[in-house]
């Protein structure tokens, strides 16, 4: 691995780069530069690694490194994690085809930060910004895997990224309190329907909807929540349905494992369904199908949540292929956004919001709900006022107080 050393001599301060070399007896070569920037550029450009060669002769090209990364993701798991799910592997393979489509002109150990920057520019020109960001993230993941295995000396992609959010990006859609109340009332009516089939279906869908609204859980989490997780007046979230399959796995990230308090009404409703209506099943599911298996998210979205939206009058007409079609105003996932917005409205700390929502880092919380946070803080400022927060009015009664313009 190359390193940079500061030297003081007759010519003043210089910076010496020491890097591996096969052509010297010591195994190292040296280059001296007048500035630290020149030394760093030399290291990051890959020039310092040209003489060292890759430590694993079988991995010399970017394409070979990508294939190695995919193999590790599928069979071993990166950095001690579990192997990725089939759905995630399929996603990674798609991104890999994009990475391989780029005309890499250098071998892997010759690449530097400028080469990654050029790849980023190519991605942005040829793909959507969102896809480009995800592909660049996967390339970075591959590079880190090669560093871990000693195939690369250092992370050549550090600091090269594509911002996730844009000031023109649409904020998430959050149902209003009135709309959520309408959904709950719709669920109550459907569960008491005179139609036996509808009433029977909503014995299960009603507690699911109440749980979704009262917990902020992801649909893939409450679909497969087990009976033993309902305890202590709340629910423990520690597993989820894998995307693209009906396989039960762990939560999306380790941070997804969390305990959420429930209102007494929701807790009792879910417990009642678990104890009185749910059939026995191998996975202890609270909301199994009639055969004891997992429900599909698609089935819940269309037959359960979609029906509640229709009953509540939350249906919009849109144009699709030149024809007017109806669709629900919201998606099941929007109930999660509503829950988070209620936490923010009640001034719950951002760190606590991050924990309850199961976000891996607080930046995710800020990216998704930043506009809600800004609105709540703006409204609070309007009610207090900056001057009112610290002024003791040492000069006597103000005109603003006379006219009641400041709400103290």
Describe this structure in words.
This protein is mainly alpha-helical. It has three domains: 1-52; 63-164, DNA polymerase, domain 1 (Orthogonal Bundle), CATH 1.10.150; 174-408, Orthogonal Bundle (hpI Integrase, Chain A). 47% of the residues lie in helices and 12% in strands. The chain is built from 15 helices and ten strands. The protein has a three-stranded antiparallel sheet with strand order 1-2-3, with helices on one face. Strand 1 (3-9) and strand 2 form a beta hairpin. Helix 3 (86-101) packs across helix 5, helix 6 (177-191) packs antiparallel against helix 7 (196-215) and helix 11 (334-345) crosses helix 13 (362-384).
Fraction of residues in β-strands:
5-15%
Biggest sheet: strands side by side, in what order?
1-2-3
Query: Which CATH-level-2 architecture of the largest domain?
Result: Orthogonal Bundle
> Low-confidence segments, ≥5 residues, pLDDT <50?
51-56, 385-408
Query: How do the helices and strands follow one another from N- to C-terminus?
Result: EEEHHHHHHHHEEEEEHHEEHHHHH
The named CATH superfamily of the largest domain: Intergrase catalytic core
How many domains?
3
What share of residues is helical? 40-55%
- Text of the CATH class of the largest domain: Mainly Alpha
Q: How many helices in DSSP terms?
A: 15
Counting DSSP E segments of at least 2 residues, the number of strands comes to: 10
Mean pLDDT: 85
Radius of gyration: 29 Å
Q: What is the fold named in CATH at topology level of the largest domain?
A: hpI Integrase, Chain A
State the separation between the terminal residues, measured CA to CA.
Answer: 63 Å
Structural class: mainly alpha
- Let me know the largest β-sheet: 3 strands, antiparallel
Outline type: elongated
